[in-house]
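Case study.
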Amino acid sequence: MENDYYKKLPQGGVASPQGWNASGVACGIKESGRDLGLLYTELPGTAGGVFTSNLFASPTVKLSRERIANRVHAQVVNSGNANACMGEQGYKDVREMAFLAAEHLRVPEESVLVASTGVIGQALPMENVKAGMARAAGELSPEGGIDAANAILTTDTAAKQVAMQVEEEGGSYLVGGMAKGAGMICPNMATMLAFLTTDVQIDRELLQPALQHAADQTFNLITVDGDNSTNDMVIVMANGASGIKINREGPAYQRFCSVLQEACRELSYRIVDDGEGVTKVIALRVKGAPDRGTARTVARAILNSVLVKTAFYGEDANWGRIFMALGNAGVDFNPEKVDLFIGAVQVAAQGRGLSFSEEEAAAVLRCREVPVTLDLNMGQEELLAWGTDLSHDYVSINGSYRS
Amino acid sequence: MENDYYKKLPQGGVASPQGWNASGVACGIKESGRDLGLLYTELPGTAGGVFTSNLFASPTVKLSRERIANRVHAQVVNSGNANACMGEQGYKDVREMAFLAAEHLRVPEESVLVASTGVIGQALPMENVKAGMARAAGELSPEGGIDAANAILTTDTAAKQVAMQVEEEGGSYLVGGMAKGAGMICPNMATMLAFLTTDVQIDRELLQPALQHAADQTFNLITVDGDNSTNDMVIVMANGASGIKINREGPAYQRFCSVLQEACRELSYRIVDDGEGVTKVIALRVKGAPDRGTARTVARAILNSVLVKTAFYGEDANWGRIFMALGNAGVDFNPEKVDLFIGAVQVAAQGRGLSFSEEEAAAVLRCREVPVTLDLNMGQEELLAWGTDLSHDYVSINGSYRS
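After joint prediction, the assembly is written out as follows.
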């Protein structure tokens, strides 16, 4: 959904907005490939963040949650090691990572955020990180977005970037972003890493709710395997380099919120689409809910049911399992009012199966993206959530990869 | 765990207690194999039941829930068709099934309970059921338990029966049982069918809490895929044929409760062990919980995590995923107090990974049953829950079987 005030930049990413630089290097945290990414703005910025609710939150989460209130200059991200469940050592290492970046960039230590993803419970190889940070700082450039986007991947098969340009009176500004996903993706703080940058000038008090709202509509409505990781975070940072100032009043803030949400939507869709072993994206529209909480709970219950997920993998129009998962969602509804559609094929009405064309349904189920519409017929609330099937490959990946 | 007052009867089942008869016939609800089971006692009995919490509960659940308050004579069970999500037709068919059995057995219609398992959303072939009921009634016998146990299976690979003999002053009595499981097994009302019979005389007011307690300790602590089906129920029926009367006072009631629980434990373990595609049974002991609710929530969160399940399938000592699932359980605990053991190998202490012998852990993980102990170190509550791994075969079975 584009419109007249913004356009997508096909090659853009996290370093596209003015004043942003990025890099990504291989320093040996992983066995091979880039594993240390850096984002940097010389102009200090404001930040917003949304973080995992997992009680075993990595120290990266605790450090970054504190520091988003500061003027920020940089974001460090490593893959290959989650720095989680490491006791006091973990806190020491995350502070050290921020310190190393701050030293190379000559910025205050408190202006550096840190994120990690990878194996839980192993010590970070700090010598490698130290050498890598020097190289990452040296390689920073406005063209480095793709390197950073590659450096944060784990079992993802492709880098995930986005950039959007917005026209405002008096000039234009950009929103850029990158994300990683693949495993441990669940709607409750979308269990992944995503970093968004922009060159608008905006107060933290406006930026945080904009991100929170955007995440609720996007990252928090996707699921791959129903688990929150210990390390999830979505960060947005705004450095003001475009000269465009976003105030509370007027339509510019609404437009900014919309564009931020579109950028989050783009990244979250790519995360689902590139989920571990995914062969289908299930686009579930929940309609007629009495309130948003109910719609969300219902969407999660259905998209996290392994019986539903395996049925989609098998391309089976198995609406009974969707009803079964709905019946277990723990929300109140009238089973005798529920309608269900797979694509345009209505498979159940008023809680009861219809005789439908299995052939037509099969044609929908063969597609990469399968639209499913569930109408509770109780109220006006509606949302779209994305989930995935559960394939043999998912089992293979997760039976062998330690994360 | 046996002791001096009861013994297991290796060949026994649901028709072993005095006065009980059973049968199981093939009447074409499924493509092949027995699919209609019948239990019958000439002496009317008392009954207790525990039922699914799924809001799309099958009419069999509604009918049986009402009728357990009556004097009961019979239980009808079919496999191959769940009679769920069928609207008014479903209610009509379940009443008809009870009526057919009542007619052949010459008992009141209201004394017949009904259960179904199988595909959701298809009409029962009532002509087949009608012919099958006549044959099932004709074939009733005290040796028919095994036929009934076979008639209720879906993707199970083996019949599940149990029988225990209890010595009391003045004589002995029996508790028999049968169950089916395999898919859609989750701890919240263990998502399966189980039928227990006994020849004691016991008031319904004592029988219902005995079953509820037994189910809470057994069926409600097992999980295969985290979903409640629309049709689950556990039924116990007591006909008094042994002449032994169980009163509220005295140790006989406690012994009865223990034996009933042991019978439920035996059946529930077999359900997990025969779960779809299961290669490992995870025996999770949660210790040091502040209360039973917390212990249960924690056990479910861990045993239902697909990341945990696939790690066990891969025989990986992946304690980080167990912590991740624990951190998502939605209960309050102190991450820095948690200890974790795989078999006798301590893999984490005070929320932090230990360096442990991967070889020793691997030896435990290669076993069919893997004991895992999680200590929250908060209180005195403790429980044992059983879960399963998630294998390639699980995906194959559930990607093709419509239920």
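Observations recorded in class. Residues 186-190 of chain A have pLDDT under 50 and may be disordered. Chain A touches chain B through 62 residues (CB under 8 Å). We will return to this complex in the next lecture.
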